[in-house]
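Private note to self, pasted from the team thread so I don't lose it. Backbone tokens:
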């Protein structure tokens, strides 16, 4: 068995001091490190020396750094730097505190409740949808590449992160700069991926697309819900035999394998569809898989159907570009403005000329002819001293206009004692028709619900 190289204590690129080894794989080791320029803890992934001597592995490693750096997403790990120092290729990532999903499955009696499994797989679907839209397929979805990162200051809460784009395949419509760093797999390299999570078309070296990730998500869900893989050979571990099982054998029903888990039929149907041998029989996208899981969960819990929005699209920087339901506040604002404009239009129509029906109603509200207007302390303070002086001047120059103004003021006080209504009337010129004034304020008072 080959020993794992330990480069703890080294400083790469004159900036990243490797503190301790925190993980390793077949091609690389991961260290907790300190960025001495800004005194920040980071994670540094170092490609093993023997893999760094192979152009294909080095190209894959560079592809992982370039691909991850160009795709900013809350559920993808953030890569900030790449370099080669004294023959060692390395990339710098955010340091995550938490555990990979594989460790949680090992600790928790090998399986999870179905609702927890759904809550973990949905962010993975979102991250995959983001990568697929930008021309990358992961090709190695498995519990070991799904990390549950603890949220600082929120005990028990975690953010799901998808790791390891090292063997991601670039599709033809990918950005040329990223496609150049993603070489095709050669026969001497072997088939990339983990045999227990590989789709039949990967095993058969056929043309592949993003639906290989849908298949791997199905295997991961199967593992989370039952504690077992759909295809494995524990007695005689052989990658080749496991790969042939993916091609030739159907998976065992989840509910038959683990009846005590109480897995809903709808959830089982979704998982088995994702595990279909033919790509066209699986869910067509990660969004479709997420939508199906959400619908099944809501139906099982008896929750009403939400406004159609499963996964919001994100821009290249990970910000939501949003397609989703309209905001209720906007609808409320539109309704209020429509009512206001309608009331204003009716009021202005009434002011253009007398309306017989409304005018009669206004006279009815006015009361018997010659009745004195009610005098209240509130009404007595309506007219300010300056306006009283103006009213006296108008009365001296035009007694007729003064009498009309007094009658109008009595009508307004009769209809509504609110000073805002009086001031609205005071700003109207005396040349308007008396009937129009009465009709307009009567209708305005009715529409506003302010008739006393």
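Design output:
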């Amino acid at each position: 068995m080959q020993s794992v190289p330990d480069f703890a204590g080294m400083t790469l690129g004159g900036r990243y001091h490797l503190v301790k080894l925190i993980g390793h794989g077949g091609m690389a080791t991961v260290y907790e490190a300190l960025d001495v320029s800004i005194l920040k803890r980071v994670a540094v992934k170092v490609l093993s020396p023997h893999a760094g001597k192979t152009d294909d592995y080095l190209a894959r490693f560079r592809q992982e750094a370039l691909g991850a750096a160009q795709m900013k997403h809350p559920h993808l790990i953030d890569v900030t730097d790449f370099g080669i120092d004294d023959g060692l290729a390395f990339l710098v990532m955010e340091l995550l505190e938490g555990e990979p999903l594989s460790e949680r499955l090992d600790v928790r009696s090998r399986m999870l409740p179905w609702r927890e499994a759904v809550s973990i797989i949905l962010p993975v679907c979102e991250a995959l949808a983001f990568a697929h839209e930008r021309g990358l397929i992961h090709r190695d979805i498995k519990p070991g590449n799904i990390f549950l990162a603890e949220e600082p200051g929120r005990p028990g809460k975690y953010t799901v992160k998808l790791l390891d784009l090292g063997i991601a395949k670039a599709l033809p419509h990918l950005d040329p700069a990223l496609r150049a760093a993603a070489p095709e797999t050669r026969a001497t390299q072997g088939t990339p991926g983990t045999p227990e999570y590989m789709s039949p078309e990967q095993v058969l070296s056929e043309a592949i697309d993003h639906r290989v990730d849908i298949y791997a998500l199905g295997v991961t869900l199967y593992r989370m819900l039952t504690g077992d893989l759909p295809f494995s050979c524990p007695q005689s571990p052989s990658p080749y035999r496991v790969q042939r099982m993916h091609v030739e054998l159907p998976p065992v029903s989840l509910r038959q394998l683990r009846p005590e888990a109480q897995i809903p039929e709808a959830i089982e149907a979704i998982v088995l569809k994702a595990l279909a041998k033919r790509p066209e029989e699986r869910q067509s996208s990660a969004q479709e898989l997420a939508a199906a899981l959400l619908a099944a969960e809501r139906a099982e819990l008896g929750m009403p159907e939400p406004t159609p929005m499963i996964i919001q699209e994100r821009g290249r920087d990970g910000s939501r570009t949003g397609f989703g339901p309209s905001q209720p506040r906007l609808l409320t604002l539109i309704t209020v403005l429509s009512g206001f404009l309608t009331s204003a239009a009716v009021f202005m129509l009434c002011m253009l000329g007398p309306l017989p029906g409304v005018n009669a109603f206004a006279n009815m509200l006015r009361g018997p002819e010659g009745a004195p207007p009610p005098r209240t302390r509130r009404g007595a303070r309506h007219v300010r001293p300056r306006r009283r002086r103006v009213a006296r001047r108008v009365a001296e120059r035009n007694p007729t206009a003064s009498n009309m103004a007094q009658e109008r003021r009595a009508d307004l006080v009769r209809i509504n004692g609110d000073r805002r209504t009086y001031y609205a009337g005071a700003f109207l010129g005396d040349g308007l028709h008396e009937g129009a004034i009465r009709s307009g304020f009567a209708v305005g008072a009715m529409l506003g619900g302010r008739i006393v």
